[in-house]
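Chain A, query sequence.
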Amino acid sequence: MTRPASRFLAVLLLLFVGSGCAALLYEIVWFQLLQLVIGSSAISLTVLLGTFMGGMCLGSLVLPRYLPARHHPLRIYAALEIGVAVCALGVLIAMPAVGRAYVNLVGHGLPGILLRAVICIFCLLPPTLLMGATLPVIARWIESTPRGIAWLGIFYGGNTAGAVLGCLLAGFYLLRVHDSTVATWCGVALNVAVAAGAFAIARSPAISAERSAYRRSDNLVTEDAGNGDAPALRPPSAGGGVLLTLALSGFCALGAEVVWTRILSLMLGATVYTFSIILAVFLAGLAIGSGAGAWLGRTSLRPRLALAACQLLQVGAIAWAAHAMAKSLPYWPVDPQAHSSVAKFRFDLLRCAWAILPATVLWGASFPLAVASVAGAGLQTAAVVSRAYAANTLGAILGAVLAGMALIPLLGTQHTQAVLMVVCVAAAMLAWWPRGAPQITAFAACAAAALPIALNVPRIPWQLVAYGRQTATTDYDAHALYFGEGMNSSVAVSETPGGARFFHVSGKTEASSLEKDMRLQRMLGHIPALLHPHPRSVLIVGCGAGVTSGSFVLHPSIERIVICDIEPLIPRVVATHFRAENHDVIRDPRVEVVYDDARHYVATTQEKFDIITSDPIHPWVKGSAVLYSQEYYELCRRRLKPGGLVTQWVPLYESNGTVIRSEIATFFSVFPHGTIWGNDDDGFGYDTVMLGQAGPLTIDVDALQARFDRRDYASVQSALAPLGLGSAIELLATYAGRYPELRTWLAGAEINRDRTLRLQYLAGLQLDSNAGTDTYAEILGRRRFPADMFQATPTQLVALYRALGNGN
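Chain A, predicted structure.
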């Protein structure tokens, strides 16, 4: 049969670009929706990623075998695209019901993990099976010649280029300006457009004539001897070795992506924009490489040798990335506060490309070269592509899972990159050996050259974990007491010559023993514990340095303290460096530590608490916005016992008025009787504590002072007195306002909802802003003395009135 006309192949390339764009839109939306249900812990994300990529693998390997051969591949391709669109709408519509069912059924431990897997399979397997089948189906229509195989590589590259567009479109526009519903409908529109284009090509006269000669489900084969094309590829030898090479290539690619995402997010700030930039650069490199690999596979008589060379060159490319991210990029003399968001994003894009683009181009070239290596005249191209795609995807699944769950926690990013280099050498040897014949000399030479490089991979500096994007501009003369890389995040503890200790996680300072930070952390715990008449049980979201959690250790009525943290290193190691400040909370017999995503725990636990609070968690960090959403606060309200209290940290630094108003308005939308309590730094706004409860708040000032004066509260008074909070008047003087006073100021503020998670996009643009002081002044300017809230003797009321600055 005559091969497809070039004009149709060019149009089909555009269709694959659109298909890839839609796929990434869905992937980002689905991950966001499902993380709200099953959580964002390493286990949850591993299950989520494994299901997504596993569906793609099964779809490429199994589904094409059962698709009818009597229909033209273009019609099947169009039907697959329509099916993906229908499934995407189904996920969007069914997700609320899925979430409710999951919450009612979930358990902890192995049953909980299995249920998370079932939910992911139910939601993701149907659409990903269809996605995975698209390229093998189109391969039925492509001749098994160098020209045809090259076009398959170009289609793969075009699909990946479309994925780059989808990643940027979702991360920088659709989810920032609109929501998951709009993003899903955009993906559906793309799928429908792609399907319409494929149907239109299939109905053209040239394709109709071709269809009459379509006799079998096999790929259309052309010898090309008389067509002026390059010679047909020779039948493969030891194709299993090439497929294994491709699997190892996928293993290294996704393993490296996990490692580099961890390191680059430290350097650039762990915002949603950073993750979109990293993914876009990674995919762009794959697209460029696949185009180059397609050309090389068509023009080279030895594509297998080129495939082996790509794997061997990866050793140098990984080493380049490792040295750039550890020795060079963190110290580029750039002050992030001196640039606009657009300029900062451009610079971040440059830094990502500088480090990881060489390796991603080589990985992108591997797929078309592998297909060219095992394809040959008379061989079913569809079967070749199906097996190659499945091998690459299966290796990618293993790489992502092992790197995130085992290699990084056990070996760290430094030695994980060394392991990946060794795997690259093994992949090169597998591709190099025809029919498994050993070439010991070549193997020994390559291994000898690669081993010193692998052994000299630099470790990332602890300052990068501590100061992140400000590493080059920060000099505190501190030294590291601890530096570790866990399953979910990298952490460090440092100490200055003056004895101040700092807890750092993922490129930012999360807590310290400085007075302003100790004041905030203890306010988060002591304010609700002192205002509640008789608190018995407490839930703390995030352990941090343990100071907030340790505040409750001193209260005699507390019987149960539950700490939920996503990173095991933090309670087990970090908190031990702050024993004096946190009263050795982790060893207290009343304490239970739960290692899970906090949002997931609050949603699924059946236990209710007198107090729910959280250690400071920055809202601009990707994933943290779910702990500042309206739905999360509603979950907290349902988990409170009668008379229970909730406190939430709202930072004023690294923020601006738009972000702060969004955070406060969202909290007040669930707790309209809530109040704000300020923690200033020498008169300047630093951060605040939001306090919420079901009904109006009434504070008996005299009773509160009596509690301060009780003998069994002496340790509480001793902990607060050095911070200027050692009496009822001093503590209540931090009152900064409530909803009725701020109603007009909050009008029009963006409510952060699960459907949009707008806060992470707003806050991500302002992490280098210092406009919070002005915003705090605006809040205080609207504050009035709440005579209906404070009950006290006239003397105490006058004292409190004066402490609040005459009520203004």
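The CA atoms of residues 147 and 228 lie 11 Å apart. Residues 1-222 form a domain with the Growth Hormone; Chain: A; fold (CATH 1.20.1250).
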